[in-house]
Amino acid sequence: MNGTSNLLSWILWMPIIGVLGILFIPKAKENAIRMWALLNTAITMVLSVKLWMGFDNSIAGMQDAFTIKMKWIEQFNINYHLAVDGISMPMILLTSLLLFLCVLCSWTVSKQVKGYYALLLFLQSTVYGVFLSMDFFLFYVYWEVMLIPMFFLIGIWGGENREYAAVKFFLYTFFGSILMLVGMVALYHATGMGAESFNLLALKAQADQFIQMKVSLFGMSIPFDKLFFVFMFIGFAIKVPVFPFHTWLPHAHVQAPTAISVILAGVLLKMGTYGFLRIAFPIFPSATVYFAECIAALGLINIIYGAFCAMAQTDVKKLIAYSSVSHMGFVMMGMAAMTTQGMNGAVLQMFNHGTSTAMMFLLIGILYERSHHRWIIRPDGSRGFGGLYTQLPVYSIIFIIAMFASMGLPGLSGFISEALIFLGMFPVYTTMTVIALLGLLIGAAYLLWMFKRMFFGDVVEENKSYTDMNAREIFYMAPLCVAVIVFGIWPSPILNIMKASVNDLVTLLGKY
Amino acid sequence: MARFVPEITLVVTMIGLLFVESTYSNEEKGSKKNFLYATAYIGLLFTLVKLIGSLGDEPTAIFTNSLTIDPFSTLSKIIMVLGTAASIYLSRKSSDIYENVKGEFVIISVGVLIGGMLLSSANNMLILYIGIEILSILSYVLASLKKNDDRSSEAGLKYSLYGGISAGIMLFGLSHIFGVVGTIQFAGIAGKLAKLDTVQIAVLMPSFLLFFAGIGYKIACVPFHMWAPDVYEGSPLPVTTFFSIVPKIAGIAVLVRVTMAFFGGADVTLLQMSWVGTLSVVAALTMTVGNVSAIGQRSVKRMLAYSSISHAGVMMLGVLCLSEIGVRAILFYGITYLFMTLVAFFITSAVQDEYGNDHFERFSGLIGKHPLMAIFMIITMFSLAGLPPLSGFVAKFNIFNALIAKKYYVLTIIAGLNSVVALFYYMKIIRIMVFKKSENDSGIKGFDFSYQVAVACLAIPVVLLGVFWENILVVANGAKIFIQ
Hints:
The complex is a heterodimer of chains A (512) and B (484).
Chain A: H1 7-24, H2 30-54, E1 68-73, E2 78-82, H3 88-105, H4 113-132, H5 136-145, H6 147-157, H7 162-190, H8 200-205, H9 207-212, E3 214-217, E4 220-223, H10 224-239, H11 248-255, H12 258-283, H13 285-311, H14 316-337, H15 340-371, H16 388-391, H17 393-407, H18 413-425, H19 430-455, H20 471-489, H21 492-510
Antiparallel strand pairs in A: 1-2, 3-4
Helix pairs in contact in A: 1-2, 1-4, 2-3, 2-4, 3-4, 3-12, 3-15, 3-20, 4-5, 4-6, 4-12, 5-7, 6-7, 7-10, 7-11, 10-12, 11-14, 12-13, 12-14, 12-15, 13-14, 13-19, 14-15, 14-18, 14-19, 15-17, 15-18, 15-20, 15-21, 17-19, 17-20, 18-20
Chain B: H1 5-22, H2 31-53, E1 60-62, E2 67-69, H3 71-93, H4 102-121, H5 125-143, H6 150-181, H7 186-193, H8 198-218, H9 227-234, H10 237-263, H11 270-295, H12 300-320, H13 324-355, H14 366-369, H15 371-385, H16 391-405, H17 409-435, H18 449-467, H19 470-478
Antiparallel strand pairs in B: 1-2
Helix pairs in contact in B: 1-2, 1-4, 2-3, 2-4, 3-4, 3-10, 3-13, 4-5, 4-10, 5-6, 5-10, 6-8, 6-9, 7-10, 8-10, 8-11, 9-12, 10-12, 10-13, 11-12, 11-17, 12-13, 12-16, 12-17, 13-15, 13-16, 13-18, 13-19, 15-17, 15-18, 16-18
């Protein structure tokens, strides 16, 4: 063990302790299960904050104070290796916060409570595993295991079409992971005889070596790094999701229960972009530079295409799902710019999109509990919602905050990250930046239209019976409101965490 | 001779079983039947202990070099013995085998096991052929064990016709090889192969293909797989379980031995290239055909049968690497495959006994009725599909590792895409167990306590081997192939 503290292991395994605890609580004691899950996520959150407190912003690489390295499979040089740096730290905070809120927002789930919370905590552990693993093998294990709880959470607790959505999500991601697995094993063998390793840092250190290598495929000689960059890229792109691999996302989002939509949009999509930053970019820097324009172009397609798709939706949740596709496009473009601002903006956007989109999904969930539908305009042409502003004032105000944060209005978190991304992109991809700005405009248009149709105008008859948010709902919305406002005005706490690590990556890429 | 004790034990066990079986009438049950099973278990247990005990011994060749006893064959034998023991346990519980032929199943399966063990130790072509024939002829009887069931009879007939033809073709190939190289010893053949001229190689190439047809039939690889689904479906379920383990592992073991003996050398010959080429094409086709055919199945048993075809394809990938890590990967795969197959078949068997058939719908709502059994089934299905941290994933990882070490990227990708297809049909049964409502609330009687314990014992390794695989790796690493 390198580090002096086991904090990362505690964070990783705390949810598993939670799962074990739940297994011992009788099925009928639903409230006890909920309280236990809440307590467990609260402890994990405290641990994450403790990690944040001990985090040294000035270190660009992995924080030695928290690194844990133990042998697992010696013959393959596979280690249980956890570490944290400026890119993973915000993700850990985001995960801890969102999971805590998800337990609260799932209070009304009454179907198989025990299984639900056990899977939710299990999911949390796997997400931490992805963000903390410094061993590619370990990373892959967590990346894959994450599919299992998601599959059941969507498949059992989801909407009407849940089974289809769960299967599609599972198969799509699994397909990407297989390509990643092939790339991973190829990398392992490429690190040289006798010194084969899955260590991500070691792989990063050998990046230059991979550029020289060739792979023979169907008789053609293909550069090693370019081929496997594409493999990794597809694996991660499916998770982001990058066009044209995005088709699983609207289904999964719409069918998933509220908490799962929140986790999906808030955390899981970030696993894709995190994968780029942690694995694809540093290990294949030259291929990254080579493909940068393609990545930017795909990001642009995501922005525009996602925004247009969102505009066409009559289902609020689907609309927000497509808006996620659009917003993740900004992250992609910011990363592809490979400038300091662009990259910082991308990582910040990963965090900010996590909070703002979580707000939107939580709010839709709250509304759904009252209305049991999500139609802005029903299929028969009548209005699903209308005049909510007069009916649900508190809800409406929070909704406005979330919407404006998502839209990127100055003073709210989305603005800072998007502004940084555009600043970073402009000198590199001027034309694309201008087109991407159009995405912001379309984004404002669909969100405002949605808002107008749902909240203004005459009150739809059935909306009159809806009650405003209760204390529990306000309680779990509050931290997110605070986050989007505070980080909108004062983003430095998050920016400071990531700055050193991100700049390091930008410098690395700049050499190629 | 001392090294032959496991086989001798089994022969003695078989004779003992014949005595026990012949001393009571079919109507009689109870203590004598218990005695029969006890005899079988004691024999198998003794064999197993002997085998495990000799795992670390120096490899030797016995009976004028016609059999080699090396760690590789010993490990294959251990897998086969475990598979046989589990199948016998299953046969006792299953109502798919008529009460009056249960004794026969026990005796014959021990016989098949002896054939399989000979096969995995074969050091010359004659023993190889004898091993295959012992294995096959007894298997034909097993397939048609349900005497008055049309499909079972059909299975037996189909199996024996195909088997007979393929054995003939193989013998033809073997005699050709003998004609050219002048010896039947593996080591001798290997020595001669290195010194052949072009004409001789040209003559030998088709004979190796004919030879391969015989082995290919045994492991049910494409295009010799046609018999498998029908035979697997027609045979009683414990027999299917047995077939998907013992003959398959024996076939793979002999394929590994022959390939490593003849082509494991460093020098690349035309013959070696064509053998590896053939194996590559066959493996890719086997995986794909097995998986694609499994998708449309309504019967779980048939689905598992097709999936076992595709698993044979994956194991072949390890063979064609011609490397030690390839062999190690196959052994690891064999061990995990044993446990996964057994769990899947054990659970299917109980469901089939309850409802009279094994259609997918029969599994609906199993999670509500028998949560533990359903969870084991879910774990096994995910493991078969190759999801971490389960043993199936590690097995697949090892195979991929061997392939990529040899830079066979295309094959790796084909194998990878196949696991996506496989996940689709494995997920089907999970979906039915978890998401579908059950038709009735009655539990499944077959899942009594002892049965649940048995399934648990088989399912726990499926999980544990996925996390703690270092030790198994060490064992598989030591399993060197010895040819003299």
